[in-house]
Amino acid sequence: MVKRLAILLIISSILFSCFEKKKIPDETTSNVSKSLKSFDNFIFVGMINRNPGLYRYDVKEKKYSVFWSDKKGKVIELLYSDDRETAFFLTAREFSNLSESGLPFINKVNLYLVNIETGQISLIEDIGSGLQVFSNWEDNNTFKIVFNSIDKAISNYVQQRTRLYNTFGKKLQDITETYDITKQGYPLPAEQKVKLISSDRRYSIISIANDTPSIYLRNSESGEQYFIIKTKEKLEKVEWRNKHLFFLTVNPENGEKFRVSKLFLYSIDKKKILITWEEGVKDFFVVNDFIVFDTGFKENSFINIYNYAAGSTYDKINIKDGCGI
C-alpha cells in the first residue's frame, strides 16, 4: 500500500510517462520457536486517525500497537536496511499526482530515523517541498534520498538534489544537479539493482528470451540451468535465504493502482516452486524462517507473515483502512 508512495510521474508531454515447547516438539513447533528467538518485532505503515502512521507488531504475541503518528505529516515511505538493523521513514504534509499546473507536487517532506533497539525516533532533516522524492538503501550503511524540484528562476529546469546518510543519520553527501527537461528529459534516479546472484555466489538467476521469456536458476559451479517459470513480467526483487529463493514479478504496464504481481517461493534443493502468491503483492522481506509481505489494494490491503520452514501462515495483520510494510 504505502511502501511505494513515491509520486507518479505526470509532467505533460515532455516527461516519460509504495513459542517454545521442549517435550519432543514436532517439526513445525521447533521451526517457529527457533525463528522467533531473533525476530521480535517490526514496524509497518497503517492508518491512524485517517492519517498514514506507524505501528509496531509483536511477533511472539501476534499483536500490534500504535508506534508513531503526526497530524501534520503522512508517512509516505518506510525503509529498513537489508540487515533490518536500521530504519528511516519519510513524511509529507500533502502530495498529489497532478496539480492545477499539470505537475505532481509533494510538500513539507521530512526524514526521520528509528532506533530499532530503543524505539526512539529522531527528525534528521527537513527535505523541503517540490515535485517528487525517491529513497532507497545503497547498502546496509548508506541511505539515499533523491529530491526533484522546479528551479525557482527557470521553469523548464529541474533541480535534482541527492543526499546520502549513514545509519546514525549523519549526512555523508549533498549534491545538486540541474536538468533542462526540454533537452535532457525528466531526471529519474537509477533503478535499484536486483540480487541476481546468491550471497555465496553458487547460484544465479538468468533470463532467456524466447517467444515468452523464461527464468532459470543457474549453478555457477557446474553450469547447469534449471527452469523456473515463463513470464513477461518484470523481475522486481530477489532474496536468497536458507537454500530458498524468493522473487517478485510485476507487470509495469498496469501501474500501482491495478498492480499485477506475483511472489514466488522456490526451493533450490528441490528445484521447484513451493508456493505462489498473486494479485497486488507490493513488497516483502525475509527474516530467519519467515517471509513477510503486503498484498491487496487500499483499504483491503493486509500483511501476511508466512513461516516457510514450517510451510504455514503464521499470522495476518488486518487493520481498518489497510496497511503495508
Summarize the structure.
This protein is mainly β and 325 residues long. It has one helix at residues 27-36; strands at residues 41-48, 51-58, 63-68, 74-80, 87-92, 94-96, 105-114, 121-130, 132-139, 142-150, 157-165, 171-180, 203-208, 214-219, 225-230, 234-241, 244-251, 260-267, 272-278, 283-287, 290-295, 302-307, 312-317, 323-324.
Average pLDDT works out at: 86
The rounded Rg comes to 21 Å
Order of helices and strands: HEEEEEEEEEEEEEEEEEEEEEEEE
Distance between the termini: 8 Å
Q: How much beta, percentage-wise?
A: over 45%
Helix-and-strand structural type: mainly beta
Number of alpha- plus pi-helical segments? 1
Low-confidence stretches: 1-35
Q: Report the strand count.
A: 24
Helicity level, as a percent range? under 10%
User: Shape, please?
Assistant: globular
User: What profile does the largest beta sheet have?
Assistant: 5 strands, antiparallel
Please tell me about this protein's structure.
The N and C termini lie close together (8 Å). The protein is mostly beta strands. The protein is built from 1 helix and 24 strands.
